[in-house]
């Protein structure tokens, strides 16, 4: 039963992510194409060629719309969709360990009244 629920959940996530993935993949493909085209014209101009008459096929990179780039776009979309924090929503109340007594508590347990809670994520090295 749990495997069926997990499979249905994964199928729904894929169904929701598919339009976002396709839109992002097309945008990245267009950006790659524009970057390659710009590099090609700059190279052509440096060699003294006529930049107004490019060849029909511009193949400067083999990563253009490759399987690896599509996997990276899918992975990025999936991570963005499944993250705990979302814009304009409440912050996740994750578990933390207090330094003074190694006790486990939640972040919002440290907030008191109307006082803002400030979290400092840094290192002192």
Please explain how this structure is put together.
The structure is a single chain. This protein is mainly α. 49% of the residues lie in helices and 5% in strands. The protein has helices at residues 2-46, 67-82, and strands at residues 95-97, 104-106. A two-stranded antiparallel sheet has the order 1-2. α1 crosses α2 (67-82). The termini are far apart. The model is unreliable at 55-60 (pLDDT under 50).
Overview features:
125 residues; mainly alpha; two-stranded antiparallel ribbon; 2 strands; 5% strand; transmembrane; Iodothyronine deiodinase; Iodothyronine_deiodinase; membrane; thyroid hormones biosynthesis
Ends apart, CA distance between termini: 50 Å
Q: Give the class from helix and strand content and strand pairing.
A: mainly alpha
Number of helices, where a helix is a run of at least 4 consecutive DSSP H or I residues: 2
Please provide the ordered H/E string of secondary-structure elements: HHEE
Assign an overall shape.
Answer: flat
Helix content bin? 40-55%
Radius of gyration: 24 Å
Sequence stretches where pLDDT stays below 50 over 5 or more residues: 55-60
Transmembrane segments: 12-35
Organism: Ilyodon furcidens
InterPro entries: Iodothyronine_deiodinase (IPR000643)
Protein name: Iodothyronine deiodinase
